[in-house]
Design brief:
- The complex is a heterodimer of chains A (718) and B (188).
- Helix content of chain A is 53%, strand content 12%.
- In chain A, β5 and β6 form a beta hairpin.
- Chain A is an alpha/beta fold and 718 residues long.
- Among the domains of chain A are: 111 residues, Fumarate Reductase Iron-sulfur Protein, Chain B, domain 2; 234 residues, Rossmann fold; 124 residues, Rossmann fold (3-Layer(aba) Sandwich), CATH 3.40.50.
- The longest helix of chain A is centred in the first third of the chain and has 21 residues.
- In chain A, α27 crosses α28.
- Chain B has a single domain, classed as Rossmann fold, CATH 3.40.50.
- The longest helix of chain B is centred in the first third of the chain and has 15 residues.
- In chain B, 56% of the residues are buried.
- Chain B has a 6-stranded parallel beta sheet with strand order 1-12-7-4-2-3. In chain B, strands 8-5-6-9 form a 4-stranded mixed beta sheet, covered by helices on one side.
- Chain B is an alpha/beta fold.
- In chain B, β5 and β6 form a beta hairpin.
- The model of chain B has no long low-confidence stretch (mean pLDDT 96).
- Chain B starts with a helix and ends in an 11-residue tail after the last strand.
- At the A-B interface, α2, α8, α10, α11 and α12 of A face α6, α7, β9 and β10 of B.
- β9 of chain A pairs antiparallel with β9 of chain B.
Chain lengths: 718, 188
């Protein structure tokens, strides 16, 4: 791992975290975006729309050469010159040569992420052609000598005062920091450029195979001017922008603005086919089709879905990490979740190696992606590739490979921790301060102490007297429930027994493997999957219950994925996935037993925090709310209830504690603003984070697992 | 309400929501009066079939407007307004579709600060998916084309995400609904 690279990355994080104005702007934008988006999609079936886009884009990927040939044939028949660029250098060389050949002094550009990707401006300058960005945001960052921090709003990180300063330098007079005025300055300053330019350079959002035409989706009108006034038009287009027909193009146009900015449609959609006539004679239209890693992406089974991307930028808009540090940290040229993946393929693994770990894995991007890309899963896959290329780091390798795979060793080390920590816990259940270099970990939240006796040690002593149980279920504790919160395990038994369900605890169960997987060690994750499948299926339970949604995802999704090509294990993994269910969902859905708790609880004002992997992984969010409300609590919704709490396992402990702390801060603010005296959740990880934050800040709000609240209600009754 | 009346209503709402001004007229004569009041200066008038058929150039001049129909690159540097017809429109998004292969149409709709568009309400379609058929017909008729979907005036939110109207294109879009102006989707 490059130390220099990591150091620079850390410096960028520190800089972003020291810019609260940026965070405020991105948070406000995220909120406004979600409202606008919801309004734009009202009356539409987003799920159906995005599945259609995904299927169409997959069809294109599977037949890419066919559709490319069709596009090229039709574009050439309409008088366009088409060049296929294998690399960024090829594309730049072609365009720079063309500029030289035309003796072009000035090229006006409308916004093109592909040209940012290839660093076309540098190539043009070397060829003696001045590139002039005309998109307002692009012009601002060109004047500032920066790169875009968002794919749709390149200058979203800048403030009007900074823009005024840049514009003042350009006009030679003091321009006031008034947005309307600044926009007018841009209009006036750039207008003559379109008339003077020899070349207009645009990107394209769509290339239609059926017609050989392209479509540009824009708001400002500069692409219309750049493609009209100069005699030569160059369109630089990634090959993944191909769609088969005009119907397909119409569907992309329908979903893209709604999902990008919450607009029903942008001000302009410009459809250009071929060399159209003009006052200076026929237009000289050059279409540069850019590969630059796209074919490699198409050929990667675990990453290829990313080629469906329509570049709406939504994955950044909703991302808690992006909202905390912005696109200059969380991105390279392309930013946000999709940026991680595209960077790896377009700009190399080295440029992606740091940001691939910056994803906290909350899956909020997955819910809004208009092409139905499972961004989180692809990022996990990439992490594994980078883990193999660069190594995991000696500490992690030792822990994952030597310790976690050996369950007895792992668990005896955890037990030893329980003894070793005594000097810092002073017998309490939370660690408030850690000495020396660990102190950063408890600076902003307490950490739970490792319990003296884990669930596995106490389980057999919990009395269960059921004559004819309705179901026999296995309990998958997961490390946090097992070793940090054993009382949650007891509560689960109390609740289940009350519902006439008998619970068993398989002692051979081990860590679910997610920490290893998230760190890029798939081999360990697979080994753990096998250990757990054997352990959990040994008693042939009716169901396997979880209290941790990350474990739920491992058992429901990851084990199946890891072992699908292994005939000895695939069917067993499927079986375990089928019977695995989170505890709250089990009570509400499989047992239909919410009413059993009716009115039993001592009424409290409770707000509910949606754990990322429960809501966006297992699809469970209504069930725990129903259980809490039915049991007699007053349920109040907090703002951003389903926004990540910033835990993310090792994300908050080792890889990005500074970012995790900010995300937790946002969550605590929302919890307190709800006015609740208790925040409920269904994840021990979230509990560790939120409870730790509340305790550290001495806030008078309790953080409880839904199962604990239900057990409390039952205990009160008895 | 008939389907068409519903489309007209939906179109007007959607177009006004994005800052277009939609005005209904009983006939072209009334629309021309509106133009005379609102053009504000020289008006760029490119050639288009429905405009020629209705003798727009002469009638605008009679109404006292200064009209330019040639050398529009030159005129576009200073003219305040542009006037075009519309091929068809989309109700769900309030969008105008203009076959703009003739460069003059583009100049008259990109350079001036005000764009006036004469639209026969008969030509309002439900949405962009319904529009694929006439789009395809235009592609089949001409081997090369430049077709513009225009939804409201030019806009940006690139500085602090504040919506600002009229950055590079027109600051005002006036949509004049004139029955009987042209009922052919393939004709402007």
């Amino acid at each position: 791992m490059s130390k220099q690279r990591s150091k620079q990355y850390r410096a960028r994080i520190d800089h972003a975290l020291a810019t609260p104005k940026l965070q405020q702007a991105l948070h406000q934008f995220g909120d406004a975006y979600l409202l606008a988006r919801e309004k734009a999609f009202s009356g539409y079936d987003f799920e159906a729309m995005r599945q259609e886009i995904a299927a169409m884009k997959d069809r294109v990927r599977e037949n890419l050469d066919l559709y490319l040939d069709e596009f090229i044939t039709n574009a050439e028949a309409a008088g366009a010159t088409v060049y296929r660029a294998a690399t960024a250098e090829d594309a730049n060389r072609y365009i720079a040569d063309l500029a030289k050949q035309k003796g072009a002094k000035l090229a006006v550009k409308s916004k093109s992420m592909a040209s940012e990707e290839t660093h076309l401006n540098v190539a043009l300058e070397k060829a003696g052609t001045r590139p002039l960005e005309t998109d307002l945001g692009e012009w601002i960052i060109q004047l500032a000598g920066q790169r875009p921090s968002h794919m749709v709003m390149p200058a979203i990180h800048m403030f009007k005062e900074e823009v005024a300063e840049l514009f003042s330098k350009e006009t030679g007079q003091q321009e006031p920091a008034d947005i309307e005025h600044l926009v007018k300055v841009a209009r006036e300053q750039l207008r003559q450029g379109y008339f003077d330019a020899d070349i207009g350079i645009t990107g394209a959002n769509i290339a239609v195979a059926e017609t050989g035409g392209i479509a540009l989706v824009t708001n400002e009108g500069n692409a219309r001017l750049a493609s009209t006034l100069p005699q030569t038009h160059v369109a630089l287009i990634g090959i993944e922008k191909i769609v088969p027909t005009l119907e397909d193009a119409a569907k992309v146009v329908r979903i893209l603005p709604k999902n990008a900015t919450g607009q029903l449609l942008t001000s302009y959609v410009t459809w250009i086919r071929g060399a159209v006539p003009g006052s200076g004679g026929e237009k000289d239209l050059h279409i540069v089709l850019l590969d630059n890693g796209r074919s490699a992406l198409a050929a990667s089974p675990s990453c290829q879905d990313a080629l469906r991307c329509v570049r709406c930028g939504a994955c950044a808009n909703v991302c808690p990490v992006y909202q905390t540090v912005g696109g200059h940290v969380f991105g390279h040229i392309y930013i946000g979740a999709i940026g991680i993946i595209l960077t790896a393929f377009f700009h190399g693994l080295d440029n992606a190696a740091e940001i691939v770990r910056a994803c906290i894995g909350c899956r909020s991007c997955v819910t809004v992606c208009p092409s139905n890309i499972d961004l989180e899963e692809i990022i996990l896959g990439l992490r594994e590739t980078i883990g193999e290329e660069e190594g995991l780091g000696a500490g992690k390798t030792l822990v994952f490979r030597k310790v976690m795979r050996n369950r007895k060793l792992f668990h005896s080390l955890l037990r030893a921790d329980s003894l070793l920590q005594k000097p810092v816990t002073r017998g309490e259940r939370s660690i408030r301060h850690l000495p020396l270099f660990f102190s950063g970990l408890t600076e902003w939240r307490t950490l739970p102490a490792v319990a003296e006796k884990p669930v596995r040690d106490i389980f057999d002593k919990i009395p269960q007297r059921l004559e004819t149980p309705r179901y026999k279920v296995g309990f998958f504790g997961g490390c946090a429930n097992d070793f940090l919160y054993p009382e949650l395990g007891e509560d689960l038994v109390t609740v289940m027994n009350h519902l006439n369900v008998q619970v068993s605890y398989a002692k051979e169960q081990n860590c679910c493997g997610v920490p290893a997987l998230y760190s890029g060690d798939k081999e360990t994750a697979i080994e753990l999957a096998k250990q757990n499948i054997d352990a959990m299926l040994a008693d042939d339970p009716d169901f396997v219950l979880t209290t941790c949604p990350t474990c739920t995802m491992a058992l429901q999704r990851d084990f199946v994925e890891h072992l699908k090509d292994n005939p000895a294990w695939a069917a067993k993994a499927e079986r375990l996935a089928e019977i695995t269910v989170d505890a709250a969902g089990f009570i509400a859905n499989q047992l239909g037993a919410a009413d059993v708790f009716k009115g039993l609880a001592e009424q409290r004002k409770v707000t509910y925090h949606d754990s990322c992997h429960l809501k966006r992984g297992a699809g469970v969010w209504e069930e725990p709310r129903r259980l809490i409300a039915t049991s007699g609590h007053e349920l109040v919704e907090m703002a951003h209830a389903d926004r990540c709490c910033g835990f993310g396992g090792s994300y908050s402990l080792t890889s990005h504690p500074d970012i995790a702390k900010r995300i937790l801060g946002d969550k605590l603010q929302d919890v307190v603003a709800s006015g609740a005296d208790c925040v409920a959740m269904d994840c021990p990880g979230c509990m560790m984070q939120i409870r730790g934050g509340l305790e550290k800040q001495e806030m008078n709000v309790e953080a409880r697992h839904t199962i604990e609240l239900l057990a409390d209600a039952l205990k009160r009754k008895s | 309400m008939t389907d068409q009346a519903q489309y007209v209503a939906a179109f007007s709402t959607a177009a006004e929501n994005v800052g277009s001004r939609v005005v209904s007229f009983p006939d072209l004569e009334q629309a021309l009066k509106y133009l005379a009041q609102h053009a504000g200066g020289t008006i760029m008038l490119p050639d288009f079939p429905s405009g020629q058929r209705h003798g727009l150039a002469e009638r605008l001049e009679q109404a006292g407007l200064e009209v330019v129909s040639s050398d529009l690159r030159e005129a576009g540097q200073s003219a305040l307004a542009g006037l075009t017809g519309v091929n068809f429109a989309l109700a769900d998004t309030g969008t105008l579709v203009l076959e703009s292969t003739d460069e003059d149409i583009r100049l008259a709709t990109t350079l001036p600060e005000r764009h006036f568009a004469l639209l026969d309400p008969q030509k309002i379609l439900a949405d962009s998916l319904v529009a694929v058929a006439p789009m395809r017909a235009m592609h089949q008729r001409d081997s090369r084309n430049y077709i513009a979907y225009i939804t409201g005036p030019s806009r940006t939110a690139d500085i602090e995400r504040v919506l600002t109207i009229g950055v590079h294109g027109p600051k005002e879009l006036h949509i004049l609904l004139v029955p009987g102006f042209s009922d052919d989707l393939l004709e402007m």
